[in-house]
Amino acid sequence: MKKIILISVLLSFVLTACHPELFEFNTQIPGEYRIAGLNMSNDFEDIEFYADNAMRMYPGSIACMMLSEITDLSADMTVQLLEGQGLKFFIRSNCNYYPDHPAITFEYRIDGYIIKEDDRIVAESTKPTADYGEKVRIVIHNYAKNIMITADCDTLCRFDTYIPNTEYIIAEALPESSADISGISFMDTDDWEDSENYIIQYE
After folding, report:
1. What residues contact residue 88 under an 8 Å CB cut-off, 6+ apart?
2. 203 vs 198: CA distance, rounded Å
3. Comparing 160 with 192, which gets the higher pLDDT?
4. What is the CATH code for 21-202?
5. How far apart are CA 178 and CA 82, in angstroms?
6. What is the pTM of this model?
């Protein structure tokens, strides 16, 4: 068993070493779903991977993350804005057709947020959601037709969408913006709904 784990870790290391645009999260955390990723930045060094489930995104950087063959997923992460405007997330998008693929977009900004279904505004606020350096837990709950996005204990939106589900979530640093995204965890929504964290936070 130890041999199999070692081979798997070594294979993962070789693949990412040969292809610097590829990355993985949660390779060392027991029980966590492994997240596959593609660094879509013009300069691969615009994203710094400093832990097994964390990255620092610099201006203009783009990270595409996915769970293989799982489209009903919940993405749970801690976001810390460091400078600039903030981050933009593309939900139900696709790495290959970004940014032209239909998507739910979520701009998490220092001066509020805006959530769109394609060009239609679903929810927005000009009330600041965080200060620079403040850590905020963001959860994107993506199940069947339903989308729910929360920031700490605040529900920013919950609605049904016509956009078909995909296994991708793309994060993009807005112009002149840097941010830390840590504690990145994706899981099947069935598992997440049954988890203790879900019951505590949303009951």
Report:
1. 105, 106, 107, 108, 171, 172, 174
2. 7
3. 160
4. 2.60.120.560
5. 5
6. 0.84
